Amino acid sequence: MTLLRVEGLSKRFGGVVAARDVSFDLGPGEMLAIIGPNGAGKSTTFNMVGGQLRPDSGRVVLEGAEITGRPPRAVCRLGVGRTFQVAQTFLSMSVAQNVQMALIARAGRTRDLFAQADALYRDGALALLDRVGMRSEADRPIGELAYGDVKRVELAVALAASPRLLLMDEPTAGMAPRERAGLMQLTASIARERSIGVLFTEHDMDAVFAHADRILVLVRGEIIAAGTPEEVRADEQVKRVYLGTTGHRAALRARKATHG
Questions:
Q1: What are the beta bridge partners of residue 199?
Q2: What is the spatial distance between Cα 137 and Cα 94, in angstroms, rounded to a whole number?
Q3: 70-79 pLDDT, tens per residue?
Q4: What Pfam families does UniProt report for this protein, alphabetically (predicted)?
Q5: Residue 79 CB neighbour total at 10 angstroms
Q6: What is the pTM of this model?
């Protein structure tokens, strides 16, 4: 079953082709990673799917409904959640209040934000925080949390929209290695449990090869390889133009040493 279908997305900025004929699909509960060197077109592709950029050509179809070029708010209402490279939270609010704000917005009750926001959807917020392992911190100001915990709260905020598709822009950026593994394991578990398709970009190859079901490799705006982690790791072109760099070879050696 196909949840998301992307067909022939292309985007040009002046004389620079940022994405050319990018096509892929994503199923419910599947983790799909987009990787590639800097300037490969990962962010451009990601933002065309999420509505931040309008493609010059191509289509984005979510469960049979075309969402190409729709603004981010409209895309969100259709069942697309998102987390960001730098966590987007209200630092002056408590952990629970951050999730409550998302639930209030999802219900279209923004007029109640200031009148009775503290009381609205608290049980729902606590349930989501429990799922991401943060219920015990519900009443702490989010500004007091370690960054890895903030990223878990951001995941709960994204889940408040009941997404069918979750877009994660470098979800482990700024996190310690153990925190990275924990967040990606949690995300994969929730994706399977709730049949949420997850599309993510990531520079940490350990996170990608350990948790992605499939991987797309972009170089200069074009897909040069697509497949399972094992297929991508064995691809000679990928090794030559991307994974062959010193840093990525070290990451792959570390993963092989850990997982055999």
A1: 32, 167
A2: 9
A3: 999 899 889 9
A4: ABC_tran, BCA_ABC_TP_C
A5: 18
A6: 0.87
